[in-house]
Design goal:
The protein is of the alpha+beta class. The chain folds into 2 domains: about 110 residues, no CATH class; about 120 residues, PAS domain (Beta-Lactamase, 2-Layer Sandwich), CATH 3.30.450. The protein contains 9 helices and 6 strands. This is Diguanylate cyclase. InterPro entries: PAS, PAS-like_dom_sf, PAS_4.
């Protein structure tokens, strides 16, 4: 991630720290090191919050702050929860430097310390038109482990119509038995407000036995209550026996 150099030395130091942690995070994601991903997530969040909360005094630094957020939006495009947070942060910066839209209150910045406080209703922000047009396989799961939504790539992989998947158990639709418990544990973490990654093995309707890397995140309803989980599945790898090709 390279966005240029801040004029303000404090912003420059914060940006360098965020960039280093972000490179480590992206490498950990590529390597499938879930424990390191979680650790780096915890380290980068307060740094990013401090960087975005800092009020720049120079036009070039304001531009770089906004450019930083758009860079994270591109890098995290496959994680719906991250996209929502970054979009909220970008709105905060626009309102800080240019003022809120007439008749609208200023946007509150997201921070890790505010996870237990009331937040915007994610369910209202779920846009099926957008999700249906994303290339990644995306599913929304209720707290009783049933599909609430699956976009076309997800439904196609599962070999079912989108509407037919609604209400079906996640564990009973082409998910291989050996990963049912890890999937349950990942969903339980999402229901508790956590984000993370897992590997899941499916019996695909198109490609046979495949392994998919997935990111899980909570779906928040009114008053910040977690009403479900969002699963975003990356590229599929075919399996030969018990080994991914």
């Amino acid at each position: 991630m390279s966005i240029g150099e801040f004029r303000d030395v404090n912003l420059r130091l914060l940006s360098d720290a965020v960039s280093v942690k972000n490179r480590q995070l992206q490498q950990a994601i590529r390597n499938g090191n879930d424990e390191l991903v979680r650790a780096l997530d915890r380290e980068i969040d307060p740094l990013l919050t401090e960087l975005i909360s800092y009020r720049a005094s120079h036009t070039d630094d304001i531009y770089l702050q906004m450019r930083l957020v758009t860079t994270f939006l591109r890098e995290d495009a496959d994680d719906r929860a991250c996209v929502l947070r970054h979009a909220s942060t970008l709105s905060l910066l626009v309102e800080r430097y240019f003022g809120p839209r007439r008749g609208h209150a200023a946007t509150a910045v997201w921070s890790p310390a505010a996870m237990d406080a009331p937040v915007a209703d994610d369910e209202e922000m779920l846009n099926e038109t957008i999700l249906n047009n994303l290339p990644e396989r995306i599913a929304v799961v209720t707290r009783d482990y049933r599909y609430l939504f699956a976009n076309p790539p997800m439904a196609q992989m599962l070999g079912a119509a989108q509407m037919d998947l609604i209400g079906q158990s996640v564990f009973e639709v082409r998910l291989e038995p050996e990963v049912r418990e890890p999937m349950r544990e990942a969903l339980d973490l999402a229901f508790s407000g956590r984000v993370g990654a897992l590997s899941a093995v499916f019996r695909s309707a198109m490609d046979g036995r495949i392994v998919l890397r997935a990111r899980y995140s909570p779906l928040r309803a009114a008053q910040g209550l977690v009403s479900g989980a969002v699963l975003t599945f990356g590229d599929a790898a075919p399996m030969v026996g018990d080994i991914a090709a």
